[in-house]
Design a protein that fits this description.
The complex is a heterodimer of chains A (715) and B (46). Chain A is of the alpha/beta class and 715 residues long. In chain A, the strands form 4 sheets. A 6-stranded mixed sheet of chain A has the order 2-3-1-4-5-7, with helices on both faces. In chain A, strands 6-8 form a two-stranded antiparallel ribbon. In chain A, strand 11 and strand 12 form a beta hairpin. In chain A, helix 23 (464-484) crosses helix 29 (626-638). The model of chain B is unreliable at 41-46 (pLDDT under 50).
C-alpha cells in the first residue's frame, strides 16, 4: 500500500518546484498563479511506495475557480495520508490562512516554510519552534529552489503519514463563534467522522453549498447563523475570516521578526519604473519589440540562414574555413539514394517531400530557440508577472481582467496550456472570452510562419516580426471591447489579485533547460505529425487523375492537391492569396501551424535549392505581393488554431455550441482583418479602387461601430 | 533493390511514427501539441 502525500499551499509558493525536486519530474514552474491547473502525481525519489501529489495553488478551502475545486475535492474526497503544506516564508501571514483550514481537515499536516534563503537574505527571522507550538504541527525550513531541507520535510511527512495521527486544529475562534461551532458539530451527528466535524461545521456556518451537497443530511443551522450574525453584526463568512486573521496576527507577532519593516526593497524600486502608470506600457512594447526583433530578424536570421542554406541546403563551410565543406542533409541523402540506385519517384518523396517539408520547419529552430530563451528569461526574472499587472490596467478599461493575460502569457509557448490556464478565471463569461482570444497571441508554432514571411517577402524588415505580436495583442483588446458589448459577455469585470514575485536573476542553466525543453518538443513534433503531413502533401501533390485513372502527374496543377486547393482558393482571393498553394498551406496549418511552412517547402521546391540556397524564399516572393503576404500572415495568426488547441477549446468550453462560436469568431475575425489589410494596402500602393476596397471600408466601419458603440449592461 | 530497401525503411519509419502517436494517445497525451506536457498546465486525458 503506497503512501500519498499532497503538496498544498498558496499559488506561487513553490509547490511545483518542490514536486520536481522530490520526484525528479520536470513540470513547468512559473511565477504567476494558474501554472498548475490539474493535480499531478509523481513518486518520491528512492521511495517507490510514496506518491507525491502536486495540487493547484489555493488561497483558501472556499474555492471560487475550477482549479481550486480540484484541490479541495482531492483533499476532501481522496484524503491523502499526509499534507505537506508549503508556505512562502516571505509572505507568511497570508499563507497561514490556508494552513489554519488544512488543519481542520483531520489529515496529518506538516508545514514546510519555503524560500527560507530569501527570508534570511532579507534579514528577517521566523521562529520555527514557536510557530510549531502555536500551530500544533511540525514546521521545517526549506528552499525548494536550492533543494535544502526538502528531503527532511518529505521524510517527516512519511513518518507522519505512517503514524496516521491527524493534526489537531489548535487555533481557536472567538468564544461566541466557538460555541456556535460546537452546537453545529452536535447537529451534524455521526454522519461525519469526528476529526472532520470542525471543518464541516465551519463550512456549514459559512453557507458553503458545495459542502452541503456532500452531506447525506444537512442539519438546519439557520438559528445558529441568525444568532451569530445578529450578535457580531456581520455575515458568517466574514466573521470566520476575521477570526482567522486575528489568530494569525497573534502568531505573527510572536513568531516573525521583520528587519526592514516599511522600507522599499530592490524589487519595489524597480517596480516604481517598470510598472509606472505612464512608462509601463512603452517599456513592455519596447521589450517585446527587442525580443521579436532579435529572435526573428537579426540574430535569429543569421542562425536560420545557416540552418536553411547550410544544414538543409547545399552545405556550409565549417567555422567559415574555406577548406572544410560540410554537405547539407539533402545532398547527403541524395548521394546515398543515388548510390543505392533508388527510383526517382521515391527520391522525390524523400527529398522533395519529407526532407523539404520537415527541413523547411526545422530550419526555423534557431529562431525559436532564441525566442524561447528570451521568454524563459522574462518569465523567470519576474517581469512577465508584472506584464499581467500592467495589462490589467489596460484590459480593465476594455472589459477584460488582467487574469485573462495569464493564459495569453502561457499561450506564447503553446496555445493548449494557454487555453487550459483559463480555468483560473472564476467568471464564466470572462473565461469563455479568454478561451476565444488566447490563441491570438502567436504561439511557438506560428513563429516559423512569421519568420518565413518576414524573411521571404519583406527581406528581414525590422517591423514585421514584432508587429505580429502586437497584431495578436490588438486582436485580443479589440475582441474584448467588441465581445463585452454583446449580451453574451456583458457584465462586471472580475477583480484581479496577484502577488508580484521579487525580481531575481535566473540561472543560465534554467533558461537553457527551458529553451531546450520547448525546442525539443518542437523538433519531436516535426519528426511525427509534420513528417506524416509532408508525406500526405507530397503524394497528393504528385498524384492526380489523368485519362480516367490515378497516377503520377507531370504538372503539379493537375494533382489531387491542386484540385482540392483550387476548390477552396476562391474563398481567399479577396485576401490576396487566392492561389491553391497558399490555400492548401493555410488549411494544412490546422493540423499543426508549422505545417504551413512545411507545405510551402514542398510546394515551392525547398529541396531544390539554388546556388545561393534561397529557392523557397525566392519562389514564394514571386508568388505573393507584400500586401497579400502580410494578409496571409495575419490570417494564420488569428484564424482557428491547430486541432490540438481546438480540442482544448472544446474541452474547456464543455459545450459544442460555444466551441463553434469560438472557432467561428476566430476565423471570421481573421478573415475580416486580413481582407481589410490586403484591400486597403493594395489601394494605397496601386491606387486602384475596386469592389474589394469598398467592402474593406464597410468592414472597417463595422468594426469601428462594434468597438465604439455605447456599452449596455446586461440585464 | 535500392528502391525496395528504401521503401521498406520509409514504411518502417511511418509505422514507428504512427505507433508512437497511438501510444501517446493511449497514454492520454495529445498527438498534435508536440507532447509538450512539461509546459502544459494540465493533462489531456480527460
Amino acid at each position: 500500500m503506497s503512501i500519498r502525500i499532497a503538496l498544498a499551499g498558496n499559488p506561487n509558493s513553490g509547490k511545483t518546484t518542490l514536486f520536481n525536486a522530490l520526484t525528479g519530474s520536470n513540470q513547468f514552474v512559473g511565477n504567476w498563479p494558474g501554472v498548475t491547473v490539474e493535480k499531478k502525481e509523481g513518486r518520491l525519489k528512492n521511495h517507490k511506495d510514496v506518491v507525491i501529489m502536486d495540487l493547484p495553488g489555493i488561497y483558501s478551502l472556499s474555492p471560487y475557480t475550477l482549479e481550486e475545486v480540484v484541490t479541495r475535492n482531492y483533499l476532501m474526497n481522496e484524503r491523502p495520508d499526509a499534507i505537506l503544506n508549503i508556505v512562502d516564508g516571505t509572505n507568511i501571514e497570508r499563507n497561514l490562512y490556508l494552513s489554519t483550514q488544512l488543519m481542520e481537515l483531520g489529515i496529518p499536516v506538516i508545514m514546510a516554510i519555503n524560500m527560507m534563503d530569501a527570508v534570511e537574505k532579507n534579514g528577517d527571522r521566523i521562529h520555527l519552534d514557536k510557530l510549531s507550538k502555536k500551530l500544533g504541527c511540525e514546521v521545517v525550513p526549506i528552499s525548494a529552489l536550492k533543494g535544502t531541507g526538502i528531503i527532511q520535510a518529505a521524510e517527516k511527512a512519511i513518518k507522519l503519514a505512517e503514524e496516521k495521527k491527524a493534526t489537531p486544529a489548535v487555533h481557536s475562534f472567538s468564544p461566541q463563534v466557538d460555541s456556535v461551532l460546537n452546537r453545529i458539530e452536535v447537529k451534524i451527528g455521526s454522519q461525519i467522522p469526528d476529526e472532520q466535524k470542525r471543518f464541516f461545521a465551519i463550512k456549514l456556518l459559512e453557507r458553503d453549498e458545495k459542502i452541503e451537497a456532500q452531506m447525506k443530511q444537512v442539519p438546519d443551522i439557520s438559528a445558529e447563523i441568525e444568532l451569530i450574525e445578529a450578535e457580531m453584526e456581520d455575515d458568517t463568512e466574514s466573521i470566520i475570516t476575521n477570526d482567522r486573521y486575528l489568530y494569525i496576527s497573534s502568531i505573527i507577532k510572536e513568531c516573525y521578526t521583520k528587519k526592514s519593516r516599511g522600507k522599499l526593497s530592490n524589487s519595489d524600486r524597480i517596480d516604481q519604473v517598470i510598472t509606472n502608470r505612464w512608462l509601463a506600457l512603452p517599456i513592455f512594447m519596447a521589450i517585446m519589440f527587442i525580443v521579436y526583433y532579435v529572435s526573428v530578424t537579426s540574430v535569429g536570421t543569421i542562425a536560420t540562414d545557416w540552418a536553411n542554406d547550410g544544414v538543409f541546403g547545399d552545405g556550409w563551410h565549417l567555422f567559415g574555413i574555406e577548406a572544410i565543406w560540410i554537405p547539407g542533409i539533402p545532398v547527403l541523402i541524395e548521394n546515398v539514394l543515388n548510390a543505392i540506385g533508388c527510383a526517382a519517384w521515391l527520391q522525390g518523396l524523400i527529398l522533395d517531400g519529407m526532407v523539404a517539408g520537415v527541413g523547411a520547419v526545422l530550419g526555423f529552430v534557431p529562431q525559436m530557440l532564441i525566442l524561447f530563451a528570451f521568454l524563459a528569461f522574462l518569465e523567470a526574472c519576474g517581469y512577465m508577472a508584472r506584464v499581467a499587472f500592467i495589462m490589467d490596467r489596460i484590459f480593465r478599461k476594455f472589459g477584460l481582467s488582467g487574469k485573462s493575460f495569464i493564459p495569453m502569457l502561457i499561450g506564447s509557448g503553446c496555445g493548449v496550456p494557454g487555453i487550459m490556464a483559463s480555468r483560473t478565471i472564476e467568471n464564466d463569461r470572462d473565461r469563455k472570452m479568454t478561451i476565444m482570444t488566447t490563441t491570438f497571441i502567436p504561439c511557438g508554432a506560428k513563429l516559423p510562419i512569421i519568420a518565413l514571411i518576414a524573411g521571404a517577402i519583406f527581406h528581414g524588415a525590422w517591423w514585421v516580426a514584432p508587429s505580429a505580436y502586437f497584431v495578436g495583442i490588438s486582436a485580443i483588446i479589440c475582441s474584448g471591447i467588441i465581445l463585452k458589448k454583446t449580451k453574451m459577455f456583458a457584465g462586471d469585470t472580475a477583480p484581479f489579485v496577484m502577488e508580484l514575485p521579487s525580481y531575481h536573476m535566473p540561472t543560465l542553466r534554467n533558461i537553457l533547460a527551458s529553451m531546450w525543453e520547448r525546442g525539443l518538443s518542437f523538433i519531436k513534433k516535426a519528426g511525427t505529425i509534420i513528417l506524416l503531413s509532408t508525406i500526405f502533401v507530397w503524394f497528393t501533390e504528385n498524384f492526380g487523375f489523368t485519362n480516367g485513372s490515378i497516377g503520377m502527374v507531370e504538372d503539379m496543377n493537375d494533382s489531387i492537391l491542386a484540385v482540392i486547393g483550387s476548390m477552396l482558393a476562391f474563398l481567399f482571393a479577396p485576401l490576396g492569396w487566392g492561389d491553391w498553394k497558399s490555400a492548401v498551406a493555410a488549411i494544412t496549418g490546422l493540423i499543426a501551424k508549422e505545417n504551413v511552412v512545411g507545405t510551402f517547402g514542398i510546394l515551392f521546391g525547398f529541396g531544390e535549392v539554388t546556388e545561393n540556397g534561397s529557392q523557397i524564399w525566392g519562389s514564394l516572393a514571386g508568388n505573393m505581393t507584400a500586401a497579400a503576404a502580410y494578409s496571409f500572415l495575419v490570417f494564420n495568426l488569428l484564424c482557428a488554431p491547430c486541432f490540438a488547441a481546438m480540442g482544448a477549446i472544446k474541452r474547456e468550453m464543455n459545450n459544442v455550441k460555444w466551441f463553434w462560436i469560438a472557432i467561428g469568431y476566430q476565423t471570421g475575425l481573421a478573415y475580416v482583418v486580413s481582407l481589410c489589410i490586403y484591400q486597403i494596402v493594395t489601394l494605397i500602393t496601386t491606387g486602384n479602387f475596386g469592389i474589394g476596397a469598398l467592402v474593406a471600408f464597410v468592414l472597417v466601419a463595422g468594426l469601428c461601430y462594434l468597438i465604439f458603440r455605447p456599452y449596455k449592461q446586461n440585464q | 533493390m535500392g528502391t525496395a530497401i528504401t521503401g521498406i525503411v520509409i514504411l518502417i519509419i511511418i509505422a514507428l511514427i504512427i505507433s508512437s502517436m497511438v501510444k501517446s494517445k493511449r497514454n492520454g497525451k495529445s498527438i498534435q501539441c508536440g507532447n509538450d506536457c512539461k509546459h502544459c498546465g494540465g493533462h489531456c486525458n480527460h
